């Protein structure tokens, strides 16, 4: 993949950057600005090179129509606050490629940044019709001279602002995309050992391909979160009212048979009678969950055992919380794993999505880990061995 340096002198040139600024926002307040901060190094590099930087990004799922709930205006404000420390001014266009965008691009000075409105306001962005995507890509390309792909969280999407526009302009990978790919290669090509993978989250079905691909590569797979109850049920245990994917039981039985002691399951579980922050929590053995209870976290013994496995590893990839970390009574398992990752003498990777949100909510600093991915879905698809369209197009001449 070409880098920004391969694009030559960018002074005075219009550079379209696809960033991933899809952050949680409620009442115009950003809950976690991690993805915004991760986008800064590439934007600063381009602005300092004298480029006119035009950023396209999405927020949420507005389903192809303008919706105030999904405006990028709060993101533009936060981006401006962060870039002001570098002396960089940020402007905001109120549409994607229309009059506001075109006028703002014409008025943009060297070293300034312009954020376009939510690209998913335009139904052509996510269209399955290649001709429609191509039309939007033409309009985006007309705003710029070169394209930089730096939104790792969307490189697994074949969308106009990710894939199609890259085929119309001289293009390069941004620093964030290069860093993410470098880390993923370390997880899949001769990782330092012991290599431990920690998987959590709600559903086994979301992680099947990852388990398939990593069973042969990892030394240990630690399973927590809601998905663990399908594993426990597959072993013949009662799981009460816990989350369960019965249609995956045979698949999970196959994993357990194939993996032997590679797969490590919790030995105790924190349960409660209902999904509620104030519900009375108790700890039970993993093979003795009461029929009227549901599991909401791995137990303290399991937290210690998982932490021991993680801390002894040389390479760790973690995707998915161990429990309902948003509720204090069910956050201890996730916190134990996060703490152990900070103690790894090697590469520790937090695989984006809920895992990234969890470590920040639980008070861990980003630099306590080797890498926090900005792309949960993209990371998983890479680890599944899939080709990511947004990366494949960058390798084209």
Question: What labels would you give this structure?
Answer:
single chain, about 400 residues, alpha/beta
Low-confidence stretches: none
Tell me the strand order in the biggest sheet. Answer: 5-6-4-1-7-8
Q: Could you tell me the radius of gyration in angstroms?
A: 22 Å
Annotation field: number of helices: 14
Residues in helix, %: 25-40%
Main structural class? alpha/beta
Summarize the structure.
With 397 residues, the chain is α/β, with parallel strands linked by helices.
Helix and strand topology:
Blueprint: E1 14-18, E2 25-26, E3 29-30, H1 34-48, E4 52-56, H2 73-83, E5 90-92, H3 99-107, E6 113-115, H4 130-141, E7 146-149, H5 160-164, E8 171-173, H6 175-188, E9 195-199, H7 208-214, E10 220-223, H8 228-234, H9 249-259, E11 263-264, E12 268-272, E13 282-285, E14 294-298, H10 300-311, E15 315-319, H11 332-341, E16 347-350, H12 353-361, E17 371-372, H13 376-383, H14 389-392
Parallel strand pairs: 1-4, 1-7, 4-6, 5-6, 7-8, 9-10, 9-15, 10-11, 15-16, 16-17
Antiparallel strand pairs: 2-3, 12-13, 12-14
Helix pairs in contact: 1-2, 8-9, 10-11
Any overview of this molecule?
The protein is α/β, with parallel strands linked by helices and 397 residues long. 34% of the residues lie in helices and 16% in strands. The chain contains 14 helices and 17 strands. The strands form four sheets. It has a six-stranded parallel sheet, with helices on both faces. α12 (353-361) links the parallel β16 and β17 (371-372). The protein is elongated. The N and C termini lie close together (9 Å). The model has no long low-confidence stretch (mean pLDDT 95). Pathway: Carbohydrate degradation; glycolysis; pyruvate from D-glyceraldehyde 3-phosphate: step 2/5. It comes from Kribbella yunnanensis.
């Amino acid at each position: 993949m070409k880098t920004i340096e391969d694009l030559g002198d960018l002074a005075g040139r219009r550079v379209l950057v696809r960033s991933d600024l899809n952050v949680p926002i409620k009442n115009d307040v950003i809950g976690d600005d991690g993805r915004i901060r991760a986008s800064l190094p590439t934007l600063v590099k381009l602005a300092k090179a004298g480029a006119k930087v035009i950023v396209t990004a999405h927020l949420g799922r507005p389903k192809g129509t303008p919706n105030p709930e999904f405006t990028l205006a709060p993101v533009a404000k936060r981006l401006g606050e962060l870039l002001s420390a570098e002396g960089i001014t940020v402007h905001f266009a109120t549409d994607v490629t229309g009059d506001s965008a075109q006028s703002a691009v014409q008025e943009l000075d060297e070293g300034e940044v312009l954020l376009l409105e939510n690209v998913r306001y335009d139904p052509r962005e996510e269209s399955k019709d290649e001709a429609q995507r191509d039309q939007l890509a033409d309009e985006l390309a007309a705003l710029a001279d070169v394209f930089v792909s730096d939104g790792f969280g969307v490189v697994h999407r074949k969308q106009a602002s990710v894939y199609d526009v890259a085929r119309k302009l001289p293009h390069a990978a941004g620093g964030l995309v290069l860093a993410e790919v470098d880390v993923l290669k370390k997880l899949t090509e001769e990782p330092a050992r012991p290599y431990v993978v920690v998987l959590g989250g709600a559903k086994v079905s979301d992680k099947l391909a990852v388990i398939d691909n990593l069973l042969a590569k990892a030394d240990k797979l630690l399973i927590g979160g809601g998905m663990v109850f399908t594993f426990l049920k597959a072993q013949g245990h009662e799981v009460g009212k816990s989350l369960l994917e019965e249609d995956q039981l045979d698949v999970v039985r196959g994993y357990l048979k194939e993996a032997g002691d590679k797969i490590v399951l919790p030995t105790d579980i924190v349960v409660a009678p209902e999904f509620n922050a104030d519900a009375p929590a108790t700890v039970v053995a993993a093979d003795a969950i009461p029929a009227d209870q549901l599991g909401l976290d791995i137990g303290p013994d399991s937290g210690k055992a998982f932490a021991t496995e993680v801390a002894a590893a040389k390479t760790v990839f973690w995707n998915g919380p161990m429990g309902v970390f948003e509720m204090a009574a069910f956050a201890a398992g996730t916190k134990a794993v996060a703490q152990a990752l900070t103690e790894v003498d090697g590469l520790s990777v937090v695989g984006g999505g809920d895992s990234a949100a969890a470590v920040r909510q639980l008070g861990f600093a980003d630099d306590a880990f080797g890498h926090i991915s900005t792309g949960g879905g993209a990371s998983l698809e890479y680890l599944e061995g899939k080709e990511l369209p947004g990366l494949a197009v960058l390798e084209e001449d």
